[in-house]
Amino acid sequence: MSGKVASYLVTGASSGLGLEFVKQLAARKSDSVDVVHVSVQPAEGNLITILEDIDVTKDECKGMLIEKLSNTNCTKIDVVIHNAGGMGTTSKESQSLDNVTSELMLNTVNLNGIGPLRVQQALLSKGLMGVEGGKIVVITSGLGSIGDNGSGGMYAYRSSKALVNMVTKGMSCDLKSKGIAVMSINPSFVATEFGGFGPDKIKDVGGMAPEKSIKQMIQAIDELSLETTGRYMTVDKDGDVPIEYAAGW
Ligand SMILES: NC(=O)c1ccc[n+]([C@@H]2O[C@H](COP(=O)([O-])OP(=O)(O)OC[C@H]3O[C@@H](n4cnc5c(N)ncnc54)[C@H](OP(=O)(O)O)[C@@H]3O)[C@@H](O)[C@H]2O)c1
């Protein structure tokens, strides 16, 4: 997107990966950044629009998002980054085969699996991705890969990300003819507020800095095209460039 003004919509930008996305995107002088659900100060020379109180677990978020966007200067979004999400609980034990409840399954699937679908439906219904073009990026997790599940557990979170992987793949098929490229990407294990353990604790057990993860994810987004739509990528924790997710969907 370098060389022209691009408009990004990032969900869940009040902390962790979303916040770092906004910081790094805002630092690119030629881009404008539109952000859902965030509380950061605008960087000099860039436009950051903060749309607060949009809860992606509720159908009402669709109307709210459109209404709030209509009160901004943003008429076309080039890149949507579906990042809002969470583990669902603060303990792995509550997501075991013995313990996981229907309520926890439904709540987590509603957030991580259906949240991105709601936001995307709202944007598409109002033609906000433009007549042709644009990119949709879904922040998934390696735990959502069925091919990579060799250890079980984490039923709610794994299922929610497996669902969003299917939604992502589906959108890549449905939107190709509209010129919209779609990708899933695993951010790797990153020191954020994810799971409520605290970034320091995640760092202590090998979590990477958000700065490194986001740098690679932005590269993957820049490189995404209609030729590569439907890709499942991952941040390479041992390297500097994003790679294809080897285990696949
Ligand atoms: N960190 C990791 O190691 C890791 C690994 C794989 C995948 N991921 C994925 O990366 C994404 C970002 O997570 P993170 O690590 O940056 O965690 P985080 O620091 O907890 O950030 C989560 C963000 O999502 C927002 N959010 C949560 N529920 C929401 C809702 N109902 N409506 C709108 N926004 C909501 C949060 O906002 P509020 O707190 O203001 O509600 C926050 O801004 C998630 O999808 C997560 O599953 C993370």
Automatic annotation (TrEMBL):
Protein name: NAD(P)-binding protein
Originating species: Fragilariopsis cylindrus CCMP1102
Pfam families for this protein: adh_short
InterPro entries, per the entry: NAD(P)-bd_dom_sf, SDR_enzymes, SDR_fam
Entry superkingdom: Eukaryota
Any GO molecular function: oxidoreductase activity, acting on the CH-OH group of donors, NAD or NADP as acceptor
Gene3D superfamilies named in the record: NAD(P)-binding Rossmann-like Domain
